[in-house]
Amino acid sequence: MAHALESEKQISESSSNDDGSRDGLDVADMEKTALGQTPFPQQLPVEPAPPLRRLDSKPPNTANAEKEEGDPLAHLPEHEAAILKRQLDIPPVKLTYKSLYRYATRNDLLIMALSSICAIGGGAVMPLMTIVFGTLAGTFQGFFLKTVTGAEFTQKISHLTLYFVYLAIGEFITIYVATVGFIYTGEHISAKIREHYLASILRQNIGYFDKLGAGEITTRITADTNLVQDGISEKVGLTLTAIATFVTAYVIGYIKYWKLTLILTSTIVAIIATMGGLGRMMDKWNKASLAAYAEGGTVVEEVISSVRNATAFGTQDKLAKQYDVHLIEAKKSGFKMKTILGSMIGFLMCYVYLTYSLAFWQGSKYLVAGDMSLNDILTILLSIMIGAFALGNVAPNIQAFATAIAAANKIYATIDRVSPLDPESEEGKKLENVEGTIELRNIKHIYPSRPEVVVMEDVSLLVPAGKTTALV
Questions:
Q1: What's the CA angle centered on 456, arms 455 and 459, to 5 degrees?
Q2: How far, in Å, CA of 236 to CA of 182, rounded?
Q3: Is 77 or 128 the better-scoring residue by pLDDT?
Q4: Element of type H or E holding 182
Q5: Which of 3, 115, 328, 349 is the most exposed place for a label (fewest CB within 10 A)?
Q6: Which of these, 145, 361, 350, lies nearest to 263 by C-alpha position?
């Protein structure tokens, strides 16, 4: 401290020598005054450290910080946060498959009922062919064994072949009506869904679009509605046809000879297990392949949008290698998926021949015992094969129905959302005479998508009627 005072004294003396004693104050008097007014202690007091047991050992309260991170509106007052949440909130909806037909008219329901009957009839027609085929085989057997004369053989063949023609005509009419009917109703209902979705979008408040975005709206009204349409159109008819085919085939088999039909039912278990297990693996690798292609597409989109910068900095090879990484990943996943697909097809073909061998091996025993004939064996075999493969085709359609329900969730959530600023609402007070003057008092404006930024704070504005007002 003494050194500091000496330095201050030297500075004061040099200043007085250069500038003179303008104020008439002596340097010594200045030192005494400074020392008298501002005494400097020789040593700063040191407070004793508090004992450790008195310290608060609780960890810092991070609840508020976590709340702000989880809820971007946590820093706002409750009434302001409630207003912003109402601007963005989209209440979830619970849908069932029946909900997809919300906008079906009476004509749509009638067409779907007729189409369902035709689809079931078309499915039942297919296994009936096995009865005709088995009878034909028995006729050929009788002709070779000389139990049927040539005239009888020709007459029976002509008669039975006409049944194939009749079945073909019936199959064509029923499947055609079912397919056209379900496609028509699917198009009509999906168009109604698009109309209601667009009308609901146009009723929403501006904050809703800040959160949703135009790209998502386009995806909903095109891709998602197509998924809904796919789940309520021709796949419904195909599913009903497959179920009817399966039921009819097994009814025919059990009527002909239930023991052999029950033995051949093992084919269904094998087909369902194979298609279910390998189908899940295929779906897994297919999603991985599509995801890799999507990531690669993002890289390509970024490169094309900034191709001038890529060329200027000479990063073409580096960017190409980045794209190759995604292509290689997609290639690996796609190869695995195709390998599983090949295995599935191989297993299914294997089951066909194993079923043939099992049917003829076990059927020969029943044939020798006199329990059944050759035409019964062929009828049961073909019925079981047709029914089993028809049931296997139901699984992809079930997946399409589930996808349609998932796609409709967000669409119907938007349709059912009540906008806080609905321009078509009839509620509230209607003014008979409107002067046209607009006045804002103490307005606080925050964008719902950016609640941390206050755009306007306590703003008042008056726009008189009949005058032009500019905001600068």
A1: 170
A2: 7
A3: 128
A4: helix 150-203
A5: 3
A6: 361
90-257+375-422 is classed in which CATH architecture? Up-down Bundle (1.20)
Alpha carbon 323 to chain centroid, angstroms: 26
CA torsion 306→309→314→316, rounded to 10°?
A: 0
Is-above-0.85 flag for pTM?
A: no
What does the alpha-carbon distance between residue 427 and residue 408 come to, in Å, rounded to a whole number? 29
| Collapsed DSSP state (helix, strand, coil) of residue 443 | strand
Indicate the burial class of 251 (C-beta count within 10 angstroms; 0-12, 13-18, 19 or more): middle
Q: Where are the domains of the chain?
A: 90-257+375-422, 261-371, 435-472
Residue 395: count other Cβ atoms within 10 Å of its Cβ.
15
CA atoms within 13 A on the CB side of 258: 2
CA gap 257, 241 in Å, rounded: 24
Determine the 3-state secondary structure of 440 from DSSP: strand
In a 3-state reduction of DSSP, which class is residue 445?
strand
CA distance 75 to 337: 49
What does the pLDDT look like over 239-292, one tens digit per residue? 999 999 999 999 999 999 999 999 988 888 888 888 778 878 887 888 788 778
DSSP secondary structure, 380-438, as one string: HHHHHHHHHHHHHTHHHHHHHHHHHHHHHHHHHHHHH---TT-TT---SPPPSS----E
Residue with tokens 């946060």: 81
